[in-house]
Amino acid sequence: MCTERRRHNLADNLIVGLDIGTTSTRAVVGDFNEDDQLEIIGYGVAPSTGLRRGVVLNIEATLSSVTSAIESAELMSGREIHSCVLGISGANVDSLNSKGVVAVAGKGREITSEDIARVHEAAQAVSIPMDREILHVIPQAYIVDSQRGIKDPMHMMGVRLESEVHIITSSVTTTQNLLKCVNRAGYRPERQILGSLAAARTVLSDEEKDLGCLLMDIGGGTTDLMVFREGAPWYTAAIPAGGMQVTNDISIMLSVLMDNAERLKREAASCWTASIDPDELIAVPGIGGREPTEIPRRKLCSIVQPRMEEILLMSKEKLEKAGFLKEIKAGIILTGAAAQMAGLVELVESIFEVSAHVGIPGAIGGLGDEYRNPGFATAIGLVLLEADEIGPVEPTRNSGGARKEKKHGSSLGNLVSWLKDKFV
Ligand SMILES: Nc1ncnc2c1ncn2[C@@H]1O[C@H](COP(=O)(O)OP(=O)(O)OP(=O)(O)O)[C@@H](O)[C@H]1O
Ligand SMILES: [Mg+2]
């Protein structure tokens, strides 16, 4: 079934993950080798100028960014791309948790897949504004009679089946505009998956998701948050700020062009000022033909740190208000290209008082290590989630891949499979 479905849905057996961001569009191409192992065979990156905080403001600019990223990926992989799996993220994404209850109707009160489908149907009977649509309904846990925390109720005996689900919604127009850009660029968007779910597939371990952790995707225009607990997502939100604000601040405060501000940020800035030698000097390019000047490196850091602190404090406040701050026992995993900022881990740890690390996508096979960068987590995750669904192998964070056993409702991949049956 797997191979057939793949052939049916995705031309040439390729899986292409497309992550259209506020600053960059990334396309990653996965393919199954002769041993049915997933390999990354190409990728493409193009600057993105048509979006603001995940919302399309300029169709032409966005579609040309999509075209350019996919064409680069085609060139690298030597394959023609017809379709893709599209990531949805940004400030227009929202979430809620819901519950459903049904009486078990199976023969002899044994829970069947029909009972599970009915309880999911019941759990998603929530009122959603007209301008929003459900992107995912993700099972968190089941309660059979009074037994809580059940991951897979299939074949269990019971009278009453309850399900707890995490519902992720997105703005109808935002998604339609993204789809329009992809279609007009000449590619078929096969399905849409929340960007954070994809990044989580790439950089979170099962232990982290079980114990409770926060995935923080710091991009150019938005910072996407997702809290996992007991293996499933419980909270999804976004802060409308990211690395671009930091570059803006540098440009204004040091009177440098945006390109130079970006370079200074990447090469000399740190958001942990305390670790910088107070006597260290850096060269700042002059504007309008003026000579470069020297400033203390600490001055640059004292511009960057407060902005990053602000983003982190906004995130912390949101989590605290929603009651999920105490859930992040296994710490914070940072992704998005801005997660590479020097000193960020230290700053995050001091603000949240839990451990933090940068989530680097694991080696999958195929290309070398160049895609193993937190900026690629979402695009790679889109490929992996799709491969979970259609392929027989499951690449892990640290290995080339291992045979997987398909079990109802036991992993995000299977959840996505359920979602697809439901919504696609
Ligand atoms: N080495 C680096 N050090 C610090 N910041 C970096 C580095 N590389 C990239 N960035 C920053 O990362 C940000 C872009 O991140 P990313 O590419 O993940 O965003 P995006 O996906 O385009 O945007 P969004 O997710 O907000 O829609 C930019 O602000 C850029 O300056
Ligand atoms: Mg992004």
Account of the protein in words:
The protein is of the alpha+beta class and 424 residues long. Among the domains are: 2-91 and 172-202 and 361-423, ATPase, nucleotide binding domain (Nucleotidyltransferase, domain 5), CATH 3.30.420.40; 94-170, Dna Ligase, domain 1 (2-Layer Sandwich), CATH 3.30.1490.110. Helices cover 35% and strands 29% of the residues. The chain has helices at 2-9, 59-77, 113-123, 172-184, 195-203, 206-211, 243-254, 258-268, 297-322, 344-352, 377-390, 412-423, and strands at 15-20, 24-32, 38-47, 51-52, 55-56, 83-88, 94-103, 132-144, 147-150, 160-171, 188-194, 213-218, 223-229, 232-239, 281-284, 293-296, 332-335, 356-358, 393-394, 402-403. The strands form six sheets. A five-stranded mixed sheet has the order 3-2-1-6-11, with helices on both faces. Helix 2 (59-77) crosses helix 4, helix 5 (195-203) packs across helix 11 (377-390) and helix 7 crosses helix 8. The protein starts with a helix and ends with a helix. Adenosine-5'-triphosphate binds next to helix 7 and helix 8.
